[in-house]
Specification:
It is a single chain. The protein contains 2 helices and 8 strands. The chain has helices at 4-18, 132-142, and strands spanning 41-48, 64-71, 74-80, 89-95, 104-113, 124-130, 147-153, 161-165. Strands 2-3-6-1-4-5-7-8 form an 8-stranded mixed beta sheet.
Length: 166
């Protein structure tokens, strides 16, 4: 029993040191902070030969479109979805052909790939889609001048999304 005294003191000292506050590697406990909180994420723009709502190859997971607006050559959206444990991907799927009208129209939809995220949080995030591929397709079809396209965004409220460019 006499020999156990120093051993117990060494063990208590080791526990105290191991449980101390390590200033070199602090842990954040703020639940709203994450590795993706640095501003809007950028999604890809792709063209689909079929119905833009048939987005199987780009993702079919559910989401809520909270807001959408055109800002210069960018479609900015706010989306909410179930998840929060894995990175989610949003893709703007555009029809291959324009609807002839004045101005022309283009059907677009947002595809969501949750990557099998099992979490049940409901984050809201901002995404942006650079519309340069749509502008290039317009100019290839109608000439290199200025243009106007009305984007028919699936799930968007009845607010017209008018994309104007030089």
């Amino acid at each position: 029993m006499k020999d156990l005294g120093p051993l117990l003191l060494v063990m208590l000292f080791a526990c105290a040191v191991a449980c101390g506050n390590d200033e070199d590697s602090p842990v954040s406990t703020t639940p709203d902070q994450g590795p993706f909180d640095s501003g809007p994420r950028t999604g890809n723009v792709v063209f689909s030969p079929g119905d833009v709502r048939s987005t199987t190859q780009w993702g079919t997971d559910d989401y809520e479109l909270n807001a959408a607006a055109i800002r210069g050559d960018t479609l900015a959206v706010s989306v909410s979805y179930s998840g929060g444990c894995r990175a989610h991907r949003f893709t703007l799927v555009a029809a291959e052909v324009f609807k002839e009208s004045d101005p022309v129209q283009l059907d677009v939809a947002i595809a969501h790939d949750a990557d099998g995220d099992p979490c049940e949080a409901y984050p809201t995030e901002d995404y942006q889609f650079i519309l340069d591929p749509i502008k290039a397709r317009y100019k290839a079809s109608y000439g290199s001048g200025a243009g106007t396209i009305v984007l028919g965004l699936d799930r968007a409220p009845d607010v017209p999304l008018v994309y104007e460019f030089d």
